[in-house]
Amino acid sequence: MGVNNTGRTLCFLCFLLLFLFHATIPAGGEPQPPDRCCRDPEPILKMGGPGTTSADVRQLQQLLNRLGYYYGPVDGIFGPATARAVEDFQRDRNLTADGVVGPATWNAIGQTATRPTASRQDRPPAKDVSILIDTTRRTLTVLFDGRPHRQYPVAVGRFETPTPLGDFRVVRKAMHWGTGFGSRWLGLDVPWGLYGIHGTNKPWSIGSYASHGCIRMHNRDVEELYPRVPVGAQVIIIGNPFIYREPPYRDLRRDFCGSDVMEVQRALARLGLFKGKIDGTWRWDMEESVYRFRAMHGLSRDNVIDKPAYRALGF
Fold first, then answer.
1. Is residue 85 part of a domain?
2. Binning pLDDT at 50, 70 and 90, where does residue 11 land?
3. One domain, residues 234 and 276
4. What is the mean pLDDT of residues 202-230?
5. How many whole angstroms from its chain centre is CA 228?
6. How far apart are CA 120 and CA 202, in angstroms?
7. Which of 29, 263, 283, 308 has the smallest number of Cβ neighbours within 10 A?
8. Neighbouring residues of 94: CB distance < 8 A, sequence distance ≥ 6
């Protein structure tokens, strides 16, 4: 009797685990982004709702003005004139004309307002396709057989959520992967989180430091890039892990991840203080290394890499 109960319990637990796993998989088959990734959600804008007065509303007004729907002041206030312009735009796109700017409306605005793509005249397909992303210049260059073929403007991570630097590979591709990622997604094998190259429904952000770590492109640009880049293609992201944004250094602590964490791990490893995996993630095995390093340099006992610790490390 006890054996049968145990068997039933194990079966139930297995079923529960399978259910929880599949619940995280959308119809397209790709897992939903985890918390440690480059989520780029769009705000839901409407009269009387959160963000009624904001920079997002101002950008919305500018886009609707360019498209010929809004002629009022660009003041960042979601008032009746903005709502009417949204409704007119929605009617013309066969959307529900409710004046609410949600995911479907953001997507339609992003597809309509994005800049025209570059000329599509290409030379024959290359044997080797790779990508070079410069976070300082905010550009993405496609290389055919090692030679620059085409360059696109991109948006990269903000200081608080920097774009990972290093030598990566494209490990997954998806179309219309999820809200905030535009029309195409090229996922990268960054060891400390889920990052990728994707489109955006915020075309005004291209050319700036605006994302949660991913590389944003105009939708038409990423749609041009998507079929040319195979899974396994090399993606090199360059820049300075500390000073490509102001202020240059962020205080690092337990559970932080990024290229700056990886550089600190390398520095501690060169000193013989860190024996763990150099993967850009500050886990428990990095704690003692930091304590020992700070003690060696007469710094207060704390599990933080702050300005005095950076200076002692030689950064």
1. no
2. very low
3. no
4. 89
5. 21
6. 23
7. 29
8. none
Buried b (16+ CB within 10 A) or exposed e, 160-196: ebbbbbbebebebbbeebbbbbbbbbbbbebebbbbb
Where do the DSSP E strands lie in 114-241? 129-134, 139-144, 147-153, 156-157, 166-175, 184-188, 195-198, 209-211, 215-216, 234-238
DSSP secondary structure code for residue 30 in this structure: P
Q: Is residue 94 part of a domain?
A: no
State whether 133 and 208 are in the same domain: yes
Which one from 38, 214, 218, 257 is the annotated catalytic residue? 214
Taking 70 as the threshold, does the pLDDT of residue 299 lie above it?
yes
Domain with 290 in it: 259-313
| CA separation for the pair 312, 306 (Å, rounded) | 10
Whether residue 38 lies in the annotated active site? no
In a domain, 25, yes or no: no
DSSP H helical ranges for 24-77: 55-66
225 CB-near residues (< 8 Å, 6+ apart): 140, 142, 152, 184, 186, 197, 217
Helix, strand, coil: what percent of the chain each, to 5? 35, 20, 50
CATH number of the domain that 263 lies in? 1.10.101.10
Catalytic residue among 37, 198, 218, 257: 198
Q: pLDDT digit string (tens) for 74-117? A: 888 999 999 999 999 999 989 899 999 887 787 677 666 554 44
Using only C-alpha atoms, the chain has a radius of gyration, in whole angstroms, of 23
Any domain includes 22: no
Give the number of C-alpha atoms closer than 13 A to the C-alpha of residue 167, restricted to the C-beta side.
0
First to last CA, the chain: 66
Q: What is the pLDDT of residues 187-201, one digit of tens each?
A: 999 988 889 999 887
Domain count, the chain: 2
CATH at residue 143: 2.40.440.10
Report how far residue 279's alpha carbon sits from residue 251's, in angstroms, rounded to the nearest whole number. Answer: 18
